[in-house]
Amino acid sequence: MGQIASATLALVTSTFLLAITVTLSACGSGSGGTGIVGQSDSVSSTSSSEVSSVTSSSVNSVSYFDEVPEGYPQLPAHFPDPKVPESNPLTVAKIELGRFLFFDRNLSINKTRSCGDCHQPAKAFTEDKALAVGITPDQIHARNSMSLTNVAYNAGFNWANPNLPDLERQVHGVLFNEAPIELGWSDVESQILDRLKEDTTYVKLFNDAFFDASDPFTVANVERALASFERALISGNSAFDLFEAGDKTALSQSAQKGKELFFSEQLECFHCHGGFNFSQAVDHEGIVLNQLDFHNNGLYNIAGNGDYPANNTGLWEFNSTPSNMGKFRAPTLRNIALTAPYMHDGSIASLDEVIDHYARGGRLIAEGEYSGDGNLSPYKSELLAGFILSEQDKAHLKSFLESLTDWVFICAANLQDPYGNHPMHNRCAELNF
Q1: pLDDT for 354
Q2: Which of 333, 313, 331 is closest to 379 using CA atoms?
């Protein structure tokens, strides 16, 4: 285990180091980059006022490719620079504020839920429930919580919304959504902001992050800080990355055979899950063409008409062209072994079942209200032709998918929950992280 940790850290230190452009004005022009600096905090209290936060002064400049302190992920050399909006340049203090807000249940109106409850570090910033739950048990989302791994590179956000161009607007929806109610800010935002103002930890964090504002406690600044923290969730140091960087011992023979299958025309996985982020829907500095694509993967074919459940029609919800029925964005496969259950509605429990689904070319639901053969859907992607694999080859493919787990990312100390509600993955101790 120690050799794995050492090898992974060796790759991290050999890459270009993560960088942040820290400006004196939150409204100044910012460059694309992702990262954070600071100290980690380990506490068990759920009250943010009892947390001792250590942040760097926001007037200290950290330029691209300068060294970042231990405890944070770094931008790998083979990754492009993420885009960062000029209206929200990354700063050390903003990202640290965002971390505290992200995991704070006081951010929900009834103090029961946080962003981190649905997006837990040990599970690659998702959770192990099929469907996300809002501030009360009856506020059940129609969708599975997506992993936030490399969310800074997303060309779009949520499973099938083509109208969210940046993280700030995606965060706004989480705060104010009413169907379901996720954090419950609608019409009570001043009450929640007043709650934050009364917390001495947040007084310091907000003033550090937005030092030039007469009143830093605004909805927009909460959204900016949360988006900034999420842009720091960079993952690119898996066993697969080590192998591609030249360490031919990083992948087992099984995983290497699985890699060949994954990138083969026989399986065609890479058409939707290709590139550095194992997702077709990416955006970054220097990109020319819009890569926000959506696909129907044959999960449903209700009554043989190609229909999906009424509350989960995908892109069709925004554009009712028939061929948009059941189209969803292909998420990254990085850290996929930790993010079960799978699919937009969490309806497939394991990687083995995922492989069987694609091998069949679509899912057969033999009976019930959703009965139908997804393999026969008139709207299914033409890339989903199905394939035949031996049980041994299926095991090889699964080994490759497991090799995309990045323990440096999962165990990064300064991406963890500062309130202690969500402990580190138990492998972090085994790997000496």
Answers
A1: 98
A2: 313
